[in-house]
Design brief:
single chain, alpha/beta, FAD/NAD(P)-binding domain, six-stranded parallel beta sheet, disordered N terminus, binds NADP nicotinamide-adenine-dinucleotide phosphate
C-alpha cells in the first residue's frame, strides 16, 4: 500500500511497481522471473550503484573466462524487455533513502550482493603487499571503485605470491597472476591492467588451504584449468593427498571431492621446470602471521591436521613461505544498506523464502535474492532458482492481498532527476557498451572495459552529442 493509503490489485493500467536493487545476476534473474509470468502486471526498475549492469558477471568472473562472461548476452535480453527499466548510477541510501524509494514503488527486491572481503585476523595482514582478492579482482576487471594505486604498488616487482584460501576465487586470482601476457592479450581487461601484469615477474604462486584437499571448495573444472596454463607448471605435494581410510570413504561420497582428488593426484609427480611459473597447491597449512616491516616479505604458516568434525587443528609445526604479495581469498561478506536489517554474523538479510523479516516478521513489500539472501555461494546460475523462489513469494503475497498497488506516486526516475541525480538508462548503457567495443577494436579485441566512472559517463555524453 502506498503512502496515500489507497490499495488496489495490480492492473494493466496500474501495474505493480517493483524496484530491484542491484543489477547483477540475482537482480536480473529476479526481473526476468517477474516479467515471465502473466498473473500480475508488473513494471520493474532495475537499479544499480554503477552506471553499468551485470554485477559480478562484469566485475567478478575472471576476464580470462570469456565463455562464462558471455552469459551477459543472455542477461541482456531481460534488460531489453519493455517491462524492465535499467536505472544505473543510483546509490540507494545516498542518492535516495530506502524509505523514499519505497514510497515510489510497491515492492523492493534487494539483490545487491556481498561486496565486502573477509579478514584473516592475523598479524601483518594490513602490511603493504597484502591485498584482499576483492581488491585485486576489482582492479583487473576495471571496477570504477578499484584502488588502482594501491593494487599496482602491491604488484610492483612481485615474484612470489601466496594466495590464502582454496575456493574458486583463489584459483581465479592465482591463475590470472600466473598467465602469460599473450594469454591475457585478448581479454577485456583495461590496458593498464594488461601492462602491469605483463611487467610483474611472477615466478611462483602458492595457493594455501588450511584444511585438506578433500575440504577444498574449488570445483573440478576450475582446478583442471591450472594445468592448461601456457607458461606455468602446477605442483602439489603427494603426502598432502594421502587420506586415512575414513577420510577416503567420506571423500568417495562426494563427486566434486572425488574428481578433485583424482586431478590433484595426477599432478603429484610434476616437478618444477626452468623458465615456467610454479603454481603450487599446499594443503594443511594455515597462515599464522604475515611477515615484513615496510611491506610483505613472507607468510608464517602452521601445519594443520583435520579433526573428526572436519576442522583445521594446528600442530604447532611452522614454516615460512617467501612472499612479496599475499592475497587473502577467504570469502565475501554482505554490507548493510541503511534502513535494512542485516545479520552481522552471516552478512545476510534475514528472510523467509525471500520475504525480508523485520523483528522476525515478514515486512510487506520487501524481498531479497542472491548473495545478500543466501550468502556468497554458488555459481551465476544458482541465482536463477534463488530469484524464482523470491518472486514466487512476492506473487503469492499479491494473490493473498498482502501486496497491492498504492495510489498515484511520482515516477522514480523523475524523482531522482529532480534531486540532481543523473540516472543511466538503457540507451546510455548501450552507448557505454558501444564505446567499450570500439576501444577494444582499436587493439583487435572484442571489448576493453572502461574503468573510470568519468570515462563511462563521458561515453554517454559523446553519444548524446552525436
Ligand atoms: P569459498 O568457496 O567459500 O572459499 C573460501 C576459502 O577460504 C575456503 O577454502 C575456506 O576454507 C578459506 N578460508 C576461509 N577463512 C579462512 C581463514 N581464516 N584462513 C584460511 N583459509 C580460510 O569462496 P570464494 O572462493 O570467495 O567463492 C565464492 C563463491 O563464488 C563460491 O560459491 C564459488 O564457487 C563462486 N565462484 C565460482 C567461480 C566459477 O564458477 N568459476 C569463480 C569464482 C567464484 P575453509 O573451507 O576451511 O573455511
Amino acid at each position: 500500500m502506498s503512502a496515500d493509503g489507497s490499495a488496489t490489485p495490480p492492473s494493466a493500467d496500474r501495474p505493480l511497481r517493483v524496484a530491484v536493487v542491484g543489477a547483477g545476476p540475482a537482480g536480473i534473474y529476479a526481473a526476468d522471473a517477474l516479467t515471465r509470468q502473466d498473473a500480475v502486471p508488473v513494471a520493474v526498475d532495475l537499479i544499480d550503484r554503477l552506471p553499468t549492469p551485470f554485477g559480478l558477471v562484469r566485475h567478478g568472473i575472471a576476464p580470462d573466462h570469456p565463455k562464462m562472461r558471455a552469459i551477459r548476452d543472455t542477461l541482456h535480453r531481460t534488460l531489453d524487455d519493455p517491462l524492465v527499466r535499467f536505472v544505473g548510477n543510483v546509490e540507494i541510501g545516498t542518492d535516495i533513502s530506502l524509505d523514499d524509494l519505497r514510497r515510489h514503488v510497491d515492492a523492493v527486491i534487494y539483490t545487491y550482493g556481498a561486496a565486502l572481503d573477509r579478514h584473516l585476523g592475523i598479524e601483518g595482514e594490513d602490511l603493504p603487499g597484502s591485498l584482499a582478492a576483492t581488491e585485486l579482482v576489482a582492479w583487473y576487471t576495471g571496477h570504477p571503485d578499484a584502488d588502482r594505486a594501491r593494487v599496482e604498488a602491491a604488484l610492483e616487482g612481485v615474484r612470489s605470491v601466496v594466495v590464502v584460501g582454496v575456493g574458486n576465487v583463489a584459483l581465479d586470482v592465482g591463475r590470472v597472476l600466473a598467465r602469460t601476457a599473450a594469454e591475457l592479450e585478448s581479454t577485456d581487461m583495461p590496458q593498464h591492467v594488461l601492462d602491469t601484469l605483463a611487467a610483474t615477474p611472477v615466478e611462483e604462486v602458492t595457493v594455501l588451504g588450511r584444511r585438506g584437499p578433500a575440504q577444498a571448495s574449488f570445483t573440478t573444472q576450475e582446478l583442471r584449468e591450472l594445468a592448461e596454463l601456457e607458461g606455468a607448471t602446477v605442483l602439489v605435494d603427494g603426502p598432502d593427498l594421502e587420506l586415512d581410510p575414513g577420510a577416503e570413504e567420506r571423500a568417495a561420497a562426494d563427486r566434486n571431492v572425488t574428481r578433485n582428488l583424482a586431478v590433484l593426484r595426477g599432478w603429484a609427480d610434476h616437478v618444477p621446470e626452468p623458465d615456467r611459473t610454479r603454481v603450487r597447491l599446499r594443503f594443511f597449512a594455515r597462515p599464522a602471521r604475515v611477515l615484513g616491516e615496510d611491506r610483505v616479505t613472507g607468510v608464517e604458516v602452521e601445519r594443520t591436521a583435520v579433526d573428526g568434525d572436519g576442522r583445521a587443528v594446528g600442530t604447532g609445526e611452522t614454516e615460512v613461505l617467501r612472499a612479496d604479495l599475499v592475497v587473502r581469498s577467504v570469502g565475501y561478506f554482505g554490507t548493510p544498506l541503511p534502513g535494512l536489517p542485516v545479520d552481522e554474523r552471516t552478512g545476510t538479510v534475514p528472510h523467509d523464502a525471500g520475504r525480508v523479516l523485520r523483528d522476525g516478521k515478514p515486512s510487506a513489500g520487501e524481498y531479497v535474492a542472491g548473495w545478500i539472501k543466501r550468502g556468497p555461494s554458488g555459481v551465476v546460475g544458482t541465482n536463477k532458482h534463488d530469484a524464482r523462489e523470491t518472486v514466487a513469494a512476492l506473487l503469492a503475497d499479491v494473490a493473498d492481498g498482502v501486496l497491492t498497488t498504492g495510489g498515484p506516486v511520482g515516477d522514480l526516475v523523475d524523482e531522482l532527476v529532480s534531486r540532481g541525480v543523473a540516472p543511466v538508462l538503457i540507451d546510455d548503457w548501450r552507448a557505454i557498451d558501444a564505446a567499450e567495443m570500439a576501444l577494444g577494436a582499436t587493439r583487435g579485441r572484442a571489448r576493453t572495459t572502461l574503468h573510470e566512472r568519468e570515462a563511462l559517463l563521458a561515453a554517454i555524453r559523446a553519444a548524446t552529442a552525436r
